[in-house]
Amino acid sequence: QLKKNFYANICPNVENIVRDAVQKKFKQTFVTVPATIRLLFHDCFVQGCDASVIIQSTGSNEAEKDHPDNLSLAGDGFDTVIKAKEAVDAVSSCTNKVSCADILALATRDVIALSGGPSYAVELGRLDGLSSKASSVEGKLPKPTFNLDQLNSMFAANGLSQTDMVALSAAHTVGFSHCSRFANRIYNFSRQNPVDPLLEQNYATQLQSMCPKNVDPRIAINMDPNTPKKFDNVYFKNLQQGKGLFTSDQVLFTDTRSKPTVNSWASSSSAFETAFVTAITKLGRVGVKTGQNGNIRRNCAAFN
Ligand code: HEM
Ligand SMILES: [Ca+2]
Ligand SMILES: [Ca+2]
């Protein structure tokens, strides 16, 4: 059972310590924002929110982070958690008392606020997981080609509704994607349509020029072409205009079951923010470890 003031008697300053460390990292690079948010998502959907995604592989264990679906997680997300953990552990009453999973949840809240998104209270008290296997990632994370039924069933498996799924998808209002993730939509989409007809034409042309056919695979482009550094509801306005980058984004507008939600949040950022806070709070409860199922890692990247 998570609690908002879990560390009140153990490490009363934990929220300020984490926020200062995250702010420092944010000043160094904006990538801190999307990298940390996506890290939380990829953690919670595999074995629950237990920092299993942060574990480094060793000679005897190929960890989650080396599964193909996690190779594009930006290093700045991992670094944010490690830096915040160091700052927490530097305070003697807090040393080895705060889990990496909780630090990731707090850091995510902080980067969302730093980029203009909603601020919210974070539930705490997660333990860090005791296993991390690349093989356990398979089939647990959504693909950019997913349709609404596939998205709904994967989120439902984590206790999240369609409404939660649409709200959380708005995380694509910040951050980057490599060209390979949507190349299918701008080149050889189908026999009749080389370009996905759901893509607005000028946007498709722009994407083609940023991602030419033999582009360097390291090139990444903004997922929100309008406000890539603001955590806002422009994501939904983009969907209304055929500017969803992935099929899994655009389908939220084209499928009549989710379209009303997109329209409503495109016109009301406060309604979106309320739904997002509900959804990310539910995300933070997925598969939480307690008792013998977890511990507090001394080093977030390695088991004790
Ligand atoms: C709904 C299904 C989802 C799919 C299919 C999906 C897929 C993807 C893909 C393919 C990328 C680009 C990765 C790359 O090429 O580097 C990406 C980036 C990202 N995703 Fe998702 N995602 C989904 C949901 C979410 C959720 C729920 C969150 C968080 C709440 C999230 C947060 C992010 C962020 C912040 C980035 C940018 C990462 C960066 O710039 O480093 N995504 N996603
Ligand atoms: Ca996990
Ligand atoms: Ca945005």
From TrEMBL:
**What is the free-text note on the cofactor?**
Binds 1 heme b (iron(II)-protoporphyrin IX) group per subunit. Binds 2 calcium ions per subunit.
Q: What is its EC number?
A: 1.11.1.7
PROSITE patterns attached to this UniProt entry: PEROXIDASE_1, PEROXIDASE_2, PEROXIDASE_4
Keyword vocabulary terms for this entry: Calcium, Disulfide bond, Heme, Hydrogen peroxide, Iron, Metal-binding, Oxidoreductase, Peroxidase, Secreted, Signal
Where, per UniProt, does this protein localize?
Answer: Secreted
Entry GO MF terms: heme binding; lactoperoxidase activity; metal ion binding
Q: Which reaction does it catalyse?
A: 2 a phenolic donor + H2O2 = 2 a phenolic radical donor + 2 H2O
Biological processes annotated in GO: hydrogen peroxide catabolic process; response to oxidative stress
The family database entries (Pfam families) matched by this protein are listed as: peroxidase
Residues reported in the UniProt entry to bind Ca(2+) 2: 173, 224, 227, 232
Q: Where does substrate bind?
A: 142
Annotated residues for binding of heme b? 172
Q: Which InterPro entries match?
A: Haem_peroxidase, Haem_peroxidase_sf, Peroxidase_pln, Peroxidases_AS, Peroxidases_heam-ligand_BS, Secretory_peroxidase
Site feature Transition state stabilizer: at which residues?
Answer: 38
Disulphide linkage map: 11-94, 44-49, 100-300, 179-211
The protein's enzyme class: oxidoreductase
First-listed, main subcellular location of the protein, grouped into a coarse class: secreted
PANTHER family tied to this protein: PEROXIDASE (PTHR31517:SF3), PTHR31517
Chain's role? Removal of H(2)O(2), oxidation of toxic reductants, biosynthesis and degradation of lignin, suberization, auxin catabolism, response to environmental stresses such as wounding, pathogen attack and oxidative stress. These functions might be dependent on each isozyme/isoform in each plant tissue.
The similarity annotation says: Belongs to the peroxidase family. Ascorbate peroxidase subfamily.
Q: What is this protein called?
A: Peroxidase
Q: Which organism is it from?
A: Juglans regia (English walnut)
Q: What is the lineage of its organism?
A: Eukaryota, Viridiplantae, Streptophyta, Embryophyta, Tracheophyta
